[in-house]
Design brief:
The complex is a heterodimer of chains A (257) and B (571). Chain A is of the alpha+beta class and 257 residues long. Chain A has ten helices and seven strands. Chain A folds into two domains: 101 residues, Roll (Ubiquitin-like (UB roll)); 130 residues, Fumarate Reductase Iron-sulfur Protein, Chain B, domain 2 (Orthogonal Bundle), CATH 1.10.1060. In chain A, the strands form two sheets. In chain A, strands 2-1-5-3-4 form a five-stranded mixed sheet. In chain A, strands 6-7 form a two-stranded antiparallel ribbon. The N and C termini of chain A lie far apart (64 Å). Among the domains of chain B are: 112 residues, Succinate dehydrogenase/fumarate reductase flavoprotein, catalytic domain (Flavocytochrome C3, Chain A, domain 1), CATH 3.90.700; 115 residues, Methane Monooxygenase Hydroxylase, Chain G, domain 1, CATH 1.20.58. Chains A and B meet through helix 1, helix 2, helix 3 and helix 4 of A and helix 3, helix 4, helix 10 and helix 15 of B.
Chain lengths: 257, 571
């Protein structure tokens, strides 16, 4: 195809009663992504199209949107792979629309923050004034690595049927990150973390639709994280207690460093 | 009356430098200072996430590495334009920063004994690029953003576009900004400020940079009377992936990948017989453009771009999958090539600006109460050419330093106030001048024309004639009637901020080209075909560009040389 139709959902809360689809004709080129197509439309056809984008290499998490009905990153979706004659771009579900393709992710960031996405340690002095690294074997790192790939794009949370039903549910992104910090050999905050998750709106609300893992562009598999979290909540046992986190490297006796 | 809010410290930009500064200020003030980070994107989206290969630090002196060696390699890489006192401070601070991020949860790749792993990088004598697979910047951003959420005294203005710096009586007072979500215009006052808005690489369309990397912060500082330093030095990284320009990290060559021309020849043997593919970036990029110009490149028909091949087969499939997983993912997704099986088409790509807002060794600008850090700043540790793995490192070190300095300063200052008409004038400029402005020229086409001109005449090889042409083009573009806004809504109007970005791009591009035209020598990344030699007698000095009514006024300042006298570079 030498050109194709790009339909963009338009909505400005100041002037529009409800969203509508606007159609643009975009010239096709080899390797064109949906983001490229949207920027072509924005730059040369209609300057008022609102969208978020930045890195264009699936690292920053800005351009999450629904493309042909499924949550995806616009920069990481080739026009060609969609197969049809038409590309339809709409804002992510489960978030309020700010304008056009831009949604309000504030509650999403707040939920991430509420589950303490940082290392908790009892050695406060060492934590902020390090003398060397906490030792961690490659195989220990491997246990959490997959969960560290989260780019906070919101695709998983927009795909989650439970998020749609329960506004207090932290959602797959926040819970997968809770699991990542819980399992990190350096972390000693497990008891606190499990307590925060063991509520009626916490891990027990997930009913494993699995849509979060299906749409994740980075292979994080939040559903797996939630499942593994449940096991810890059920047993009531944190992987580590205060003082049991990874130890700081110290020079072997007789060496200078 | 313009809406006003107040903080103790205001940090503009949420990349590695900005977030590191925020945490430092929060930490040393023990919760007492009110710190705000203002960013035109959501806080975790900064271009810093795109850094791939490594962060340089000396961690293993027992294996031969030393602070002196890191310092010397950096100074040599800079073609002796770096300030050596700053470089010395930098290399001393770095090991602590690696451990600090590790303690905050960064998943650095590990050696079998559990200690942090390091790899080779261009221009270094020892392997000192600390890495977390090939997603170093991403993990640094994640660690800093997540850690920042721990501090109750750090708040974020997410998706606010800063339009100007407010100064009064020779002191920093705050900024004016537009909230994207509402379109409201505000002044945000603070006792101290830090500009950490990153580089200006989007002056070129073939760039490794995020779309957000426009020189808004630099342009605002420049308009506020602060000089920009050494802006003519722009780094063209050897390996931008065809056709997007996405970065293929130098770690590919660090791990054993090689560049070859259309005859399959490993051409770096001719240009850098010792360091080969791991010579400094300016050297490799010039070699590549020479190969292309002499007909030994290949052409990508769809994009029309010339390229050379980056062959990863010497690394081996297993290692590619483990250590370069993101590169593999990018190559498959954006080019349809699995580098385990076939070479990647690459060419030199705009990657970094060595120049930036002029600061002293503490990151302080010439405006009292304002600091700058990271790529937006020019301290200078990078001189005429930055070594790979030193930029994320610089962001960490001067993020920490400026955060600490700003905190000390703010703790002893009264609340900021500012004459009301300053912000009112700025509001008029933006809303009467642009939002309600009239004009027939598409601002995005002005941007395109600028990028095309920069790629033509301000690229790897430059001449006096080409640079004069570039200056004429930029001045013509400035005269076009593009200062208008088709989007008439106040809500999330990116059209308005895009016009402001283009205005800033033109101002900063003019500084780049004027500095390059004046500098009649070749040093580091700035290569003049008409002046192919380095000229220490006349040009061992920093360029300072001040905003004037008819474009930049150039001045110069001395380079701090402490330990290493300038010598010819060999790789």
């Amino acid at each position: 195809m030498s050109e194709f139709k790009l339909a963009v959902q338009r909505f400005d809360p100041l002037t529009d009663a409800k969203p509508r689809l606007a159609e643009y004709t975009v010239p096709m080129r080899e390797g064109m992504t949906v983001l490229d197509a949207l920027l072509y439309a924005r730059d040369y056809l209609d300057h008022s199209i609102a969208l978020r984008f930045s890195c264009r290499q699936a690292s920053c998490g800005s351009c999450g949107m629904k493309i042909n009905g499924r949550p995806r990153l616009a920069c990481y979706t080739q026009v060609e792979e969609l197969g049809g004659e038409k590309v339809v771009a709409q804002p992510l579900d489960n978030f309020a629309i700010v304008k056009d393709l831009v949604t309000d992710l504030e509650s999403f960031f707040t939920k991430h923050k509420q589950l303490m996405p940082y290392v908790l340690r009892s050695d406060a002095q060492e934590l902020d004034h390090p003398t060397a690294e906490y030792l961690m074997k490659p195989e220990e790192l491997k246990k959490v690595l997959q969960f560290t790939y989260c780019i906070k794009c919101g695709l998983c949370t927009s795909a989650c049927p439970t998020v749609a039903m329960d506004v207090k549910f932290p959602g797959p992104q926040a819970m997968a990150q809770a699991y990542r910090y819980l399992m990190d050999e350096r972390d000693e905050g497990g008891e606190k973390r499990l307590e925060a998750l063991d509520t009626a709106h916490g891990v027990w609300r997930c009913h494993f639709a699995g849509s979060c893992s299906f749409v994740c562009p980075k292979g994080v598999d939040p559903a797996l994280g939630i499942q593994l979290l449940r096991r810890h909540v059920l047993s009531g046992k944190a992987p580590r207690k205060q003082g049991e986190g990874a130890k700081v490297w110290s020079a072997p006796a007789g060496s200078t460093k | 009356m313009v809406e006003t809010s107040r903080h103790d410290i205001l940090i503009v930009g949420s990349g590695i430098a900005g977030l590191r500064a925020a945490i430092e200020a929060a930490r040393i003030s023990n919760g007492k200072l009110d710190i705000a980070v203002i960013t035109k994107v959501q806080a975790m989206r900064a271009h810093s996430v795109s850094a791939e290969g490594g962060t340089a630090a000396v961690l293993y002196p027992e294996l031969g590495d030393s602070l002196e060696s890191h310092m010397f390699d950096t100074v040599k890489g800079s073609d002796y334009l770096a300030d050596q006192d700053a470089v010395e401070r930098f290399v001393k601070e770095m090991p602590g920063e690696i451990y600090q991020l590790e303690h905050w949860g960064l998943p650095w790749s590990r050696r079998e004994d559990g200690r942090i792993a390091q790899r080779n990088f261009g221009g270094y004598t020892y392997p000192r690029a600390t890495y977390a697979e090939d997603k170093v910047g991403f993990f640094e951003m994640q660690t800093l953003y997540d850690t920042a959420t721990k501090y109750g005294n750090i708040s974020f203005y997410q998706e606010w576009f800063v339009t100007s710096i407010l100064a009064d009586g020779g002191e920093f007072k705050g900024v004016t900004a537009i909230e994207r979500k509402s379109g409201n215009f505000s002044q945000i006052l603070a006792k101290a400020g830090i500009i950490a808005t990153g580089g200006s690489g989007r002056l070129y369309s073939f760039a490794t940079y995020a779309y957000s990397s426009t020189p808004d912060g630099m342009a605002a500082a420049y308009r506020a009377g602060i000089p920009l330093k050494d802006m003519e030095f722009i780094q063209f990284h050897p390996s931008g992936l065809i056709p997007s320009g996405i970065l293929i990290t130098e770690a590919v060559r660090g791990e054993g990948g090689v560049l070859v021309n259309k005859d399959g020849e490993r051409f770096m043997k001719k240009y850098a017989p010792n360091k080969l593919d791991l010579a400094s970036r300016d050297v490799v990029s010039r070699a590549m453009m020479t190969e292309i110009e002499e007909g030994r490149g290949m052409k990508d028909d769809a994009s029309g771009l010339d390229y050379l091949n980056l062959d990863l087969s010497p690394i081996g499939g297993q290692k590619i999958k483990e250590r370069l997983s993101q590169i593999r993912e990018i190559a498959i997704k954006f080019r349809g090539i699995d580098p385990v099986e076939a070479p990647l088409p690459v060419r030199p790509v705009c990657h970094y600006v060595m120049g930036g807002i002029d600061t002293d060794i503490d990151g302080a600008t010439k405006l009292k109460g304002l600091w700058a850090a990271g790529e937006a700043a020019c301290v200078s540790i990078n001189g005429a050419n930055r070594l790979g793995a030193n930029s994320t490192a610089e962001c960490l070190v001067w993020g920490k330093i400026t955060g600490g300095e700003a905190a000390k300063y703010a703790a002893a200052r009264p609340q900021a106030s500012v004459p009301g008409e300053l912000s009112a004038l700025e509001e008029k400029r933006i809303f009467d001048g642009i939002f309600h402005g009239k004009g027939g020229t598409n601002p995005y086409e002005v941007r395109d024309a600028l990028q095309k001109e920069m790629a033509k005449d301000a690229f790897v090889f430059r001449t006096g004639d080409g640079l004069s042409q570039a200056l004429r083009t930029i001045r013509e573009l400035k005269q076009k009637d593009f200062l208008h806004c088709e989007d008439k809504s106040r809500v999330y109007n990116t059209n308005l901020s895009d016009v402001l970005e283009v205005e800033g791009m033109l101002a900063v591009a003019e500084v780049v080209v004027a500095g390059a035209l004046a500098r009649t020598e070749s040093r580091g990344a700035h290569f003049r075909r008409d002046y192919p030699g380095r000229d220490d007698k006349n040009w061992l000095k920093h360029t300072l560009a001040y905003a004037g009514p008819d474009g930049p006024r150039l001045d110069y300042s001395t380079v701090a040389i402490t330990k290493y006298q300038p010598a010819e570079r060999h790789y």
